[in-house]
Amino acid sequence: MQERRTSLRDVAQAVGVSVQTVSRVANGEPNVAPEKRELVLAKMRELGYRPNAAARAIRRGSFRTVGVVYHSLHSVGTHRSLEEISERAAESGYATTLMPLAASSGQAANGAFTRLGEMAVDVLIVILPAPFGVDEALQLPEGVPAVILGPPLVDGVATVDFDQDVGARQAVGYLLDLGHQTVHHITGPPGSFSAASRLDAWRDVVTERGRALPAARAGDWSPGSGYRAMRQLLAEERPTAVFAANDQMALGAYRAIIEAGLRIPQDVSVLGFDDIDEAEMFAPPLTTVRQDWGLLGRESLRVALEMERGAPPEQVQLATKLVLRASTAAPAG
Q: Which of 60, 95, 132, 244 has the smallest number of CB atoms closer than 10 Å to its CB?
């Protein structure tokens, strides 16, 4: 049989004080004499008393828990953002409950919202790669402040994201300013807002500068897809500048270029996106667009907790930064 849990009444009877006194000690409230407080705490330890977190949460109207819905931890950005959210939440006295999804869709997210509601969370942060605004099936839960890590596609919904368009435009413009006649592009996967935004920016800048627009090469964020896309590109033509939609695909492109007997940047300039920790250790170090994933996590949590306190939803766009290293140069000759 399951052993009965020690209650406040058990502790009160053992010490010889009222249940209200034990409750004040358990909740850290004042108005208890220091000597009596020590006696109660000692008896709690002796009897193995543990506060009922759910009951306390109901009494104070807060569960001190942040719920996070996400699709995959394979993304560097998702992993880093989650780390920052959980660490900052702990500093603020909140626990973090993670709810992974089997699919990136409104229906799947709605199911996660329901499960998190049953687990009682105070605020919700949603990390999914697809743009929510075009998925009418998605229904954010009522009564729970929610922040989406993504573009501001719907009025009145709190969002935090990087300015993808400006970052990609800086990258492509920089390569053209070096003197390259055009810039080739390895894209992220279909259905990703970030990939679509970087693709659109690449296409717009090349077209605005009056340069020939080459066919984009499809990738899926992985180094392997960057390697395959670059091999295909080199088999068909001789590019002088390549903009990869993330650093992992740029790494794959490096391998294909080196295997072809070409040099970086003397023969082919390569520019990535994200500025992962390993980017400066590439050979040569990778020129890329930096996104501060820690800041993204901190800002999403800040917006969520301020909404819990009654603040209106914010739509925050964070700046990116072009980081110049040794993988880019003017074209030979």
A: 60
Kindly tell me if the per-residue pLDDT of 12 is higher than 70.
Answer: yes
> Residue 203 and residue 273: Cα distance in Å, rounded?
16
pLDDT at 142 over 80: no
**How is residue 147 written in tokens?**
């922040």
Asked whether the predicted pLDDT for residue 35 surpasses 90, the reply is no
Q: Which two tokens stand for residue 208?
A: 């605005």
Give the other-Cβ count within 10 Å of 19's Cβ: 14
CA distance 53 to 30: 20
Contact by Cβ (8 Å): 326, 113: no
| Residue (of 58, 86, 122, 128) closest to 305 by Cα position | 122
Which residues, 6 or more positions from 135, have their beta carbon under 8 angstroms from its beta carbon?
105, 106
The CA–CA distances, whole Å, from 230 to 20, 64, 204, 263 equal 71, 48, 22, 14
Give the Cα-Cα-Cα angle 32, 36, 37 (nearest 5 degrees).
65
Considering the entire predicted model, what is its pTM? 0.77
CA distance 324 to 327: 8
